[in-house]
Design brief:
The protein is an alpha+beta fold and 136 residues long. The chain is built from five helices and five strands, in the order ααααβββββα.
Length: 136
Amino acid sequence: MYIENIGNHLKMHEIKPSYQRMKIFEYLLDNKTHPTVDEIYKALSPEIPTLSKTTVYNTLNLFMEKKIARVIIIEENETRYDVDMGEHAHFKCESCKKVFDIPFQIENLDIEGLKDFKINEYHIYFKGICPTCLNK
């Protein structure tokens, strides 16, 4: 995912492009690791000394409300964030703890029990060992 002008992207989604909001969105774009609030805060606070965890939480909630980010909860005690709003699944390696984007199309999933339902949202998560850790 590439966005040339983050400020314009935020404006298009009715978000005032403050410096902190733009830096948080830029961090999410540049770090495909699906970071947590703590990771975002620790990475940006040296550059933005006035940044607080509350600001990071509030900004991420705004991004989710405006549908330019989504929350990923693979583990009950770990909330991660993703700005790739395209259709994909996630895989978490139980060894290195990395979260990977996995290409996925809902149309290819044949679940007989859902044929009479209208799906508004779905989350597909896999857990296991990634190829890098398997080869160690």
